[in-house]
Amino acid sequence: MLANAMKTLPNAALAKAAVLMLVVVPLNPVSPFARARVEAYPYGTKDCIEGTNGPGFAFYLGKEKGCTKAIPSYPYLEIDIREWPIPIGEAITTGPDNWAFRCPSSRDSCAQAVSGDVVFDHSTDPTPPNRGVRSTGRYELKFQGGRIENGRFEIVCSDPCG
């Protein structure tokens, strides 16, 4: 049907239609982080990982902005990073040392990401006397079954470590 319609268009109109299709529907997105997701998790808090799982930091990303508690209300993402200082502008790959989980509800267990990357664009030093933390960045996490969670985040809440 489309092929028949294209045969009747003059060449100039066909060229304009082809350019419009390339602008509206890109064949190869520049970055996997560029895809916008309605269910993205833009707000976060930071907590410390200590003991046998630490040292490191747990970042909890949720849909609601606020500093009421370390773990946001469901659904949320948990990203555990065991690198310090956090590298800025470099991909932190999830795997044996850095974990990521998607926690859909209190009734369902959290699912661990099979792969993924987290990139911090900015992070303040959360150690005294700098008690506040502000971190921004982006994530792309792949889960069993092919589900991908990606988006940008901002962390403005922090529980003190130690």
Apparent shape? globular
Number of helices: 2
Radius of gyration: 21 Å
Mean pLDDT score = 76
Give the ordered list of helices and strands.
HHEEEEEEEEE
Strand line-up in the sheet with most strands:
4-7-8-9-1-2-3-5-6
Strand content bin: 35-45%
Instruction: Assign the structural class, choosing from mainly alpha, mainly beta, alpha/beta, alpha+beta, or little secondary structure.
Output: mainly beta
What is the count of distinct domains? 1
Q: Which runs of at least 5 residues are low in confidence (pLDDT < 50)? A: 17-37
Oligomer: single chain
Total number of β-strand segments?
9
Biggest sheet features: 9 strands, mixed
Helical residues, percent: 10-25%
The first-to-last residue Cα distance is: 67 Å
Q: Topology of this structure?
A:
Layout: H1 2-8, H2 11-24, E1 43-49, E2 56-62, E3 76-81, E4 91-93, E5 99-103, E6 111-112, E7 115-123, E8 135-142, E9 148-158
Parallel strand pairs: 1-9
Antiparallel strand pairs: 1-2, 2-3, 3-5, 4-7, 5-6, 7-8, 8-9
Q: Please, could you describe this protein's structure?
A:
The chain has 162 residues and is mainly beta. The chain has one domain (37-158). Helix content is 13%, strand content 36%. It contains 2 helices and 9 strands; from the N terminus they run H-H-E-E-E-E-E-E-E-E-E. The chain has helices at residues 2-8, 11-24; strands at 43-49, 56-62, 76-81, 91-93, 99-103, 111-112, 115-123, 135-142, 148-158. It has a 9-stranded mixed beta sheet with strand order 4-7-8-9-1-2-3-5-6, with no helix packed on it. Strand 5 (99-103) and strand 6 (111-112) form a beta hairpin. The longest helix has 14 residues, at 11-24. The protein is globular and about 35 Å long. The N and C termini lie far apart (67 Å). The model is unreliable at 17-37 (pLDDT under 50).
